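== Polypeptide entry ==
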Amino acid sequence: MILVFYLLRFQIGPFFFGTSVVMFVFILQFVLNHIDKLVGKGLDAWIIAQVVGLNLAWMMVLAVPMGVLFMTLMSFGGMSAAQEITIMRASGISLLRMMRPAIIAGLLLTCGVYWFNDEVLPDANHRAKTLMQDIQRKKPTFAIEGGQFASQIEGYTILSRQTKPDGTLLGVTIYDQTSPLRASVVSADTGRVAFNRNFTRLIITLNRGEIHQIGRQNPADYRRILFSTHRIALETNDFAFTRSSDDMFSRGDREMNIAAMKELVRKSETSILGIDSSANREIEAHLSYIFNGEQIGVQPPKLTDDNAWSRVQSRISIIRSALESTSFQREDNQSRIRGLSVEIYKKYAIPFACFVFVFVGCPLGVMSRRGNFGISAAISLGIYIVYWACLIAGEKLADRAVISPAAGMWMGNVVIGFIGLFITMQINTETLPFFNKIKRITTGFFVRKKEQ
C-alpha cells in the first residue's frame, strides 16, 4: 500500500499539468477560430464566458486521455532517471506491479470520462450550438461613423458628415425607403442616436432641419416640412441579444446520449423492414401482372395488340420509379444507422484510451529515462497524433461503409494497445530482443557508413 501511494504521488501532478496544458491549447484554438463571431457584436463578457465554458466539455473528453499519457511518461521517466525503477526492480518488483496504480487510475478515469461523455457532453454540445446560433443571429453593434453611410437598419440609410467624440452627429441625412407611396429624405444640422431599453427601437433626435417627401407614382406630390426638433423611432431587429429555448432546435448525433441514439437506430431498422416489405409487394404485383394478372384484376397486354409496347414501357416506368424511391429511402436509413453507430462506438472508444495509454506511457517513460516536460510532451504528441489519425481514418471508412463502425472506432485503441502491450512485455521481461536487434542494425549501419 505504501508503494501504491508513493507511485500515485508522482502521477497526480503530471496528470493535472498535462491535462491543463492540452485544455489551454484547445481553448486558444477555439477562441482564434471563433473570435470573428464573438467580437464586435456588443456581447456581455458573461455570454462569451458561457460559450467558452460550454465548449470545455468536448475539450475535457479529448484532454483527459492525453493527460493520462503525459502522466505515465513523465512520472515513470522521472523515476527511471532517478534510478528508482532500477532499485524497485532489484527489490523484486516487476514493471507490471509498478504499473498497477496507473492501471487502476486509468480504469477509474475511463469510467469517469465515459459517464461525462454520455451524460454531460450531449447537453453541453446542444446548448453550445443553440447559443452560437443566437450569437450569429445578433447583428453587430450599431454605429455611425463620420462620412460613411450606415445601412444596418432595413429600409433606412443614414449619413453623418462628421461625428463628435460625445456622440453628436453633424450634417445628418436620412434616406427613408420604407413607404411604397413616397420617398422621404430628412436632413438636419445636428442629431443624436440612442436605443431604447430593450433595443427594439432606434431613437434619432434631430435639430434644425427639414423633410422632403415626393410621391413615387406622382412626382408632383411633393412636400417640404421644416422643424426645429424632430424625433424618429426606427424599428430594429436582432440588435439585442436574445436567448432561444434549447428545445427549439433538433439534436444532432453529438448532442444525444447512447440511449437516444440506440432508439433512433431501432426506428431506422424498423423503417428498413417496412421499406423492404413494400418493395417485395411491388415486385410481386409486377410479376403477377406479367404472368397472369390475377393480383390486380386486369389481363396483361398482348404484344400483338395496338400500343402494347407503350403500355409495357409505362408499366415498367411505374415499377422502376417505385423501386428507386424505396431504394433511396433504404440507403438514407442505412446511412443514418452508420452515422449513429459511429457516434455510439466513439463514446466507448475515446474514454477507453485512458486505459490503453497507460500501457504505452509507462514503458516508454522507463525507456526514455527522462522525466522533463519537453521529452514527455514530444512523445505524448507523437502517440496522440497516431491515435487520432487512426480514429479519424476509422470514422471516415465507417461512414463510407468500407468497414464496420465498431472496427473503425476501435482501430486506434487496438493499434496503440497492441504496441503498448508489446513494449510493456518486452521491458517487463527485461529481454528487449526486438529493440536490441534494431539498435544493432542501426549501429552497424552507421559504422559501415563511417568506414566508407
